[in-house]
Amino acid sequence: YNINISRSEEIPLRRTIKDTRPETCKDTSFNISSFPSASVIIPLYNEGLSLVLRTVHSVLDRTPDVLLKEIILVDDASSHEDLGEPLEQYVDELGEKVKLIRNFERQGLIRSRLHGMQLSRAPVIVFLDAHIEVNVQWLEPILAQLQEKPNSIIQPFVDGVDPDSLEYSAPNILYRGGLTWDLRYVWIRLAEHIQEAAFRSGQPYWTPTLIGCALAMDKAYFKSIGSFDADQLIWGGENVELSLRTWMCGGSLVTLPCSRVGHVFRPTPYKRETPFHSTWQKNLIRTAEVWLGPYKKYFYSATSIFENRHVNLTETEWKSLEKRKSLRDKLQCKSFDWFLREVSPDLHPPPRNSMQYGEITNE
């Protein structure tokens, strides 16, 4: 599990957590009668049962009934016994809003999310990891933002849940998502004036990249830009690919300080038949080949130092990239050069006359 499951099982499934929103958010009211409903999609694979149920209860308890169309649990062929009949029996007692569907064989996080989306019935979809607790009034700011900007992907501000103590806490500084040349997500501290505005007024702020554990979007818009790349494997890198595609194809990524969720940050949650770094690298190769243009040479240089990322795509996988390139052309997406100038100017290309690229390490 890579988490203290014994501690998780000691904690109530329906517990009170600290309201971590900026004070101004707590005084905000919404006309929820004008909002669309949302389907919450939660993939899981061999998660601790208590974690899954705490995630579900937090959504049920802190979401207005009229706004919650359904919760769709997508079990990705889990092998743990308590995620079999015991989970089914518990879900049956939760009422018709909670549905459990099962993949007959392992599909991975990305395809499990797509499976859930295909069965969803609401105009707004929210993807949550199975080890999350949503906070007070988490959904209303998301729906308000989507009404204003339907061509955006929204992420709540992500608080932390300690993997050992399961304590829910919030950082005292705010971050946005950044990017490195090997296409890793990195946390970047917000400029002071943006932090001040976010704390003072709850002002949303844009982010170059998504963290990926909690995402919300208008379903029609998401489908129109290609949803997730179904040819990516298991999980890893899908948040970066979606981030680049959204920005470069006319959309935006927004973080909402007034919407808070807690996420258990831990090492790799999925058991894999193949090593993590090889599948992750394949997913990132797909991203680089479609979206980086001539800058992809920096990606390959930055990853060449790592032996566990010395992989390549198969002939079939190379051919499958044509679908994503055709989508890029159909949407008339901007170049990665535009992304660097307008969205992520702090990602500096190496000097053009450099003889070598990569990372320096001490031995």
Task: Please tag this protein with its features.
polypeptide N-acetylgalactosaminyltransferase activity; single chain; globular; 34% helix; 363 residues; disulfide bond; transferase; alpha/beta; Spore Coat Polysaccharide Biosynthesis Protein SpsA, Chain A; Nucleotide-diphossugar_trans; 5-stranded mixed sheet
Largest sheet strand order: 3-2-1-4-11
Largest sheet, strands/sense/barrel:
5 strands, mixed
Reported CATH architecture: Alpha-Beta Complex
Radius of gyration: 20 Å
Structural class: alpha/beta
Could you state the CATH homologous superfamily?
A: Spore Coat Polysaccharide Biosynthesis Protein SpsA, Chain A
CATH top-level class: Alpha Beta
CATH fold-level assignment: Spore Coat Polysaccharide Biosynthesis Protein SpsA, Chain A
Strand percent estimate: 15-25%
What is the helix fraction of residues, given as a range? 25-40%
Please tell me the overall pLDDT.
90
Output the helix-strand order.
HEHEHEHEEHEEEEHEEHHEHHHH
Number of helical runs? 12
**Multimerization state:** single chain
Q: What low-confidence regions span 5 or more consecutive residues with pLDDT below 50?
A: none
What's the count of strands?
Answer: 12
Distance between the termini: 32 Å
